[in-house]
Design a protein that fits this description.
By secondary structure, the protein is mainly beta. Helix content is 0%, strand content 48%. The protein is globular, with a radius of gyration of 13 Å.
Length: 123
């Protein structure tokens, strides 16, 4: 069983940066693609970014492209989401999730979920 724990959320001013971490335990993460999702109050959950098991393929939602960077350190069983130039509309609970797949990554068919970390962007 894979457990995922997110951290790094908090309150930041518009234009600021945060780095979220998703640490896995129970199994090694190197066989899993990992995705970040977010859910703002009153809105549906949306896929933000994903990375395949090797780290060679990444994807981003249009709303965050150019501002967010996903990366992974399989030796540390950790996936990161670097968030720069944050906007008020990035305020949400952020979740990481993992799916056992090799080549691709995506936002459906996730096998494991973390409990989330809250990001608030406000002056």
């Amino acid at each position: 069983q894979l457990q995922l724990v997110e951290s790094g959320g908090g309150l930041v001013q518009p234009g600021g940066s945060l780095r979220l971490s998703c640490v896995a335990s129970g199994l090694t993460l190197d066989s899993y693609a990992v995705s970040w999702f977010r859910q703002a109050p009153g809105k549906e959950r949306e896929g933000v970014s994903c990375i395949n098991s090797s780290g060679g393929t990444t994807k981003y939602a249009g709303s965050v492209k150019g501002r967010f960077t996903i990366s992974r350190d399989n030796a540390e069983n950790t996936v990161y989401l670097q968030m720069n130039s944050l906007k008020a509309e990035d305020t949400a609970a952020y979740y990481c999730a993992a799916a056992r797949r090799d080549v691709t990554c995506g936002y459906i068919g996730m096998d494991y979920w973390g409990k989330g970390t809250l990001v608030t962007v406000s002056a």
